[in-house]
Amino acid sequence: MRRAVPGLLLVATAMLAASPFMIDAAPPEVTMGLVQKIFYVHLPSAMLFMVASVVCGTSSAIYLLGGRRLGADRAAFTAAELAIVFGLITLVTGPLWGRKAWGVWWVWDVRLTSTLVMWLLSWSYVLLRRFGGAGSETLSAGVGLFGMALVPFVYWSVNVWRTLHPKTSVVPTLPASMGKPLWWSVAAFACLFAVLFATRARLERLRTDVDMALADADE
Amino acid sequence: MISVLHSAWLIAAKDLRVEARSRELVYTTLFFAVTAVLIFAFSFVQEDSTVPPGAASGILWVTLTFSGTIALTRTFEREREHDTLRGLLLSPVERPAVYLGKLFAVLLLLAGVEAVLVPLTGLFFQAPLLRAPGLLVSLLAAGTLGFASVGTLFAAMLVRARSRDVLLPVVLFPLVVPVIIAGVRGTNVIFTPDSELAVARMWLAMLLSFDAVFLSLALWTSGPLLSE
Amino acid sequence: MIKRVVLTCALLIVPALAAAQQAVPEGFKPFDESATRETLPAAPMVFVAYSLAWIALAFYTFTLWRKLGKVEQDLAELRRLVKR
Prior knowledge:
The complex is a heterotrimer.
Chain A: H1 4-25, H2 39-65, H3 70-101, H4 110-131, H5 136-161, H6 176-218
Helix pairs in contact in A: 1-6, 2-3, 2-5, 2-6, 3-4, 3-6, 4-5
Chain B: H1 2-22, H2 24-44, H3 55-81, H4 84-90, H5 95-125, H6 133-158, H7 164-175, H8 177-191, H9 197-225
Helix pairs in contact in B: 1-5, 2-3, 2-5, 3-5, 3-6, 3-8, 5-6, 5-9, 6-7, 6-8, 6-9, 8-9
Chain C: H1 2-20, H2 42-83
């Protein structure tokens, strides 16, 4: 994986550098015009936020119920941090788009609210790890596991409460001229996600190594 | 199975006996709840004594959430002060029993708080409490159970952690969002004079399924999570 | 372990994609130049959105790189100490 990182980073950078040209080449959308271009950043971020949350929840479950493997704990922590980063991008680009497209900065519809709640949960995971002291690996794994179980309930309760975010599926009907930059952006972001994930996890592993080397040096 | 329930009852009885002697938790939590409602009254009751629609149910559940968090923190802080939690965990009692015992004690405490809080909220915010009393009680019970089932587990886990006072709300509040939504919306339906009670029953069903899922999850993970 | 997790991440893109099918507003149609413009200027929103996304990712990557460099330095130094 370590050897793959520089390569992936190069691919990600190249793709991200090319993406503005691809996005510009796509025709502007009829009702929303220029502001719809935010979609090419908003949707990949939202997808990767979901991926990161799922990875965090699954790794937490593996850690708790599968023998406390450090690798699982590292994966969960890294995924939680990445969920915060990509969630932030999603929650900022979304309202910027919404302000122009819908006229309001924020609406309490199911997708926005669920994303906000899950984003806050990733924060509670990270805050618990940072400020919880010793033994917080287990606690945060509990948060991750419960968080994953929570998703359908948040969705259900907010959905019954209100709905505005249009539900119909549009990606299949997306004209090819808009599809290409979208999938390009998704792929570019996904490469970046992989790079960030591998690097962050490696940082955690090295920190553990430093602690152990310190312990050796004391002897 | 029976032994788990029996052990849980013994643990809960111990807590209730301790509480009956000092009554510390009951008095302090109740007082907190009453003053919180008072502050809400100052914030939301208008100059002409009218109350914004939906205020009563919202205030009820917000106050419950905060009182519940304080009750949970205090319950386990007491265990930590006397280092009795380790004794509990070392005893030949299964983890789920410890969890259930604590949960039962917390539930009783919160029920006592609600017995005062609900009439008070009805009084201050002109809420028609007796419109559907059975449904209201069920909503409160199911919501409190949902809140307490997650809260007890995490409060117990946080006993050893640093910054545990603020970390409990940090961890708990996002996890109980569906409970709050369902509780407030369901209660609001009851408090709104001409609304359809079937909607409140739907929210009750949602609360009950949340309780079922999360109580089971908490019982299942209480072993791995409470092992330290 | 990390290799497997990253691979799983990559594979998880597929269900995420499937879920994201619903995440897009209805009726994307290419623009007709003769249609009237809206009053709120879109360009600043797009600019801010993209800048914020880049800044967030760049900042995170930068801090990560710096922390990694520092930890690797510490590790090399400690290993030298232990060997002695």
